[in-house]
Structures are given as C-alpha cells and as structure tokens.
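Lecture notes, part 5. Sequence design as translation. It can be helpful to think of inverse folding as translation between two languages: the language of shapes and the language of residues. The source text, in structure tokens, appears below.
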C-alpha cells in the first residue's frame, strides 16, 4: 500500500469550533519519522483504534494522550483495566474510580462536578473502572459522566476528547444499546458541534457497533487476524488492506484520515510514560513517582460526599417520631382517664401516674417489621442484579455464537440457508401446539 493513497475527497464540511487554547500546536506528532495529525481533528472528531492483543492498540492510545496532554489539551479517559494512571509519571491528572488506588472514589453523584472540572477547569481526568466491585456501578458512573459532559459542552464549547477503552462493552454490535451506549453514539453524531470528540478502542472491530464506526473520521487499524475482524477492514478499506493488516508488526498500523482523504501505513512511537498495562514479569514492577492534582480540587470534589451525608442527616432529623399524648394526673382513677391512657399507649392502668409516651422504634414488633422490609428489599434487589447479569452473559454468549457461526463466508452461507428452515420449523411447532390446544 502506498503511504499516501487517496480514498475520497477531503472532508471539509464541519462547522468551525472555537479553540480556547492559544498555545496548543496545530498538530501532534505520533511517530519517530514525523507522522502527525491535526490537534483539533483529534480533539473534536471521532476516532477508532483497534488491533488484537499485543499489536500496539493501547500504546497508540497512550501516545495520543501523551501528545495531547503535552499540548495542554483537556481530555477524559474511560479506563477499563486501570492502565492509564501511568500518564501521571509526567502529567498532572485527576485519577478517580472505585477504590483507594485512585485520588478520589466517585459515584454518579460526582458526575456534574467531574464534568465541570474537566471542561471548565480543563483538568485531565482518568475514570478508572477496574476498582468497582459491581461492574454495573462503574457503568452507571460512565453513563452519568458522559451525559454531564455532553450537556455541559453545549455551553463550554471547549475542544475536548473522550477516550473510551473496551468500546465493545458499551457500544456492542447486534446486542442492542443501553442508555450508556446510546449516549456515546449521540456524542459521536452530535458532539463535534459542541467541541466534544470521542475515540473508542477495542480488540474486536466486528464486536463494535457499526453505527459508531461509520461515524468515525480517523481510524487506526493495528494487526487483526480473525476473519470477522478482517472482513470489517475489507468492507471499509478494501481486500488488499484486509490482507495487509494481518501481517503488521507490533506498533504498526494502517491509518485512515477523512480530513485529507488518505490511508497511510504508520509505525507509532513507544509511549514515554510508565506502562501500567504491561504484562507483569517475575522481577515485579516498580511504580515511579506519580504527579498529583491540587489538594483544593480534591477537597472540592470530596464535598459531594459531605453534601450527601448532610442531606441524609437532615432527612433523619425531619422524620416523624411517634409520641403518646394521653397523660393523666397522678391519683386520678376515673374511667375516662384510664381510657385516655390506654388509647395513647401510655401503658398505665386506672389511677396510673405520669405521662405515657413510648417510641415505636423500641417496640420489638416495629423492629421486626423493619427487618422484614429491609430483607425483602435486599432479596428483590439481589434477584434483579442476578437477572441483569444473566441477561448480559446470555447476550455475550449469543454474540460469541454468532461470531463463531459466521467466521467464514462458507459458514455465513450455511447459516443463511439454515435460518429460513428453522423459522418454518418453529412456525410449524406453534401451529401444531395451537391446534392441539383447540382440540
């Protein structure tokens, strides 16, 4: 393949985006021999980086991040495996996630403030999902943060890149999109007008929504060998590229860029910061000193937790408490006094002395009811989580089965031949069952 093979007319129809970073260079250089890409196109466009394990996909994403950070450009990394904190060896980033390895542990309650920090204060952020014990919680945080970024970008209009690892987990092909996936696709379709770009990464392009890939204006294809994946390359770049992509060396890639209509073979440079995603060896890994963000920023973000605690405390203080009101004077043995004391729960008989107020919370029956309510709610929530997990596993199994069945053109034709017959067989069973029921 030629190093500069035109594919189609240069893409020039995008609306202008105001650039608020006067010192940012026009281009970022990504290889030792000088291959570069326009900074504004990377920040506000839609990118896709793919390649099988060990081909250089994550290294390329880190090189892009290093160059943008060195240029002072803002970004947020959705880090599925906890490997981007190595950027903190050279750059000040806010590292948030689900465990104490991060600068701050965050939940969906932090989404608005994180979006403000990233866009308004232009603090680079790593959202590390590897520490969440419940994967659904991490996914919900991603959805809330991306939604907040998209909404805030309409006012901020700051060139900003959202980099998403393991994109097939969020925008799968053929599995249907949940709210998080729909938000990411919406950013891909409409984010550029707000200055919000996105770059997705995945080892398996066949498993990523084609609705996303077809929106991309820069794509990086590292080595791919599975038939389903090379078929995607063939559909987009042609059969020659599909053959070539199987023989690429580590770090090499075929880069397709819409802004100049070119397809180029590139060897990306090695990342310069700590490689936190490297495979461990027997000698262990020595983590270098890492830079940290300002303590005032962390204190400001931690204020979300304090606000939540204050709100919960206020709710507890405002909750109604049962009190008894039917007090009778000491020494009064009238029937009406006894009835009043009995009705108010004072517990005193006729002629009983003192005020008679009791707290239902101290009643064993009340405590038992609260426990049963809590237990029932926990069981329902547990069943719901188990059902959701089973649904995700079933979806992955179906996608794996579909990939396996359609791995080659011959198997695809076999499936296409078999499906109508299976459909007719199911219809026959349904009609037979209906007739048997009527008879």
């Amino acid at each position: 393949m030629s190093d500069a093979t035109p594919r189609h007319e240069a893409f020039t129809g995008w609306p202008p985006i105001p650039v608020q970073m006067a010192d940012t260079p026009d281009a970022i250089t990504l290889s030792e021999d000088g291959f570069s890409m326009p900074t504004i196109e990377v920040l506000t466009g839609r990118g896709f980086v793919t390649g099988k394990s060990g081909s250089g996909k994550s290294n390329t994403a880190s090189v892009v991040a290093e160059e943008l950070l060195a240029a002072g450009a803002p970004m947020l990394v959705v880090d599925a495996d906890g490997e981007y904190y190595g950027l903190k060896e050279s750059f000040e980033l806010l590292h948030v996630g689900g465990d104490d390895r991060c600068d701050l542990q965050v939940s969906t309650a932090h989404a608005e403030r994180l979006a403000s920090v990233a866009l308004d204060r232009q603090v680079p952020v790593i959202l590390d999902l590897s520490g969440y014990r419940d994967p659904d919680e991490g996914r919900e945080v991603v959805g809330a943060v991306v939604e907040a970024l998209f909404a805030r970008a309409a006012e901020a209009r700051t060139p900003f890149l959202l980099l998403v690892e393991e994109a097939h987990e969020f925008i799968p092909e053929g599995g249907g999109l949940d709210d998080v996936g729909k938000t990411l696709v919406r950013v891909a379709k409409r984010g550029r007008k707000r200055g919000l770009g996105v770059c997705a990464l995945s080892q398996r392009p066949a498993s990523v929504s084609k609705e996303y890939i077809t929106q991309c204006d820069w794509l990086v294809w590292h080595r791919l060998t599975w038939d389903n994946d090379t078929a995607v390359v063939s559909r987009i770049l042609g059969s020659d590229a599909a053959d070539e992509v199987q023989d690429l060396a580590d770090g090499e890639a075929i880069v397709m860029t819409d802004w100049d209509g070119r397809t180029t073979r590139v060897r990306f440079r090695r990342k310069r910061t700590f490689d936190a995603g490297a495979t461990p060896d027997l000698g262990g890994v020595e983590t270098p000193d890492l830079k940290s963000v300002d303590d005032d920023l962390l204190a400001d973000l931690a204020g979300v937790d304090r606000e939540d605690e204050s709100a919960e405390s206020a709710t507890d203080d405002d909750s109604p408490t049962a009190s008894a009101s039917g007090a009778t004077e000491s020494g009064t043995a009238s029937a009406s006094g006894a009835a009043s004391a009995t009705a108010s729960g004072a517990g005193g008989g006729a002629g009983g002395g003192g005020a008679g107020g009791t707290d239902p919370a101290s009643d064993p029956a009340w405590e038992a009811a609260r426990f049963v309510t809590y237990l029932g709610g926990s069981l329902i929530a547990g069943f719901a989580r188990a059902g959701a997990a089973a649904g995700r596993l079933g979806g992955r199994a179906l996608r794996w089965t579909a990939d396996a069945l359609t791995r080659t053109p011959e198997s695809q034709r076999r499936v296409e031949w078999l499906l109508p017959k299976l459909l007719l067989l199911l219809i026959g069973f349904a009609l037979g069952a209906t007739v048997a029921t009527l008879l």
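The translated text above is only one of many valid answers, since several sequences can fold into similar shapes. The longest helix spans residues 364-405.
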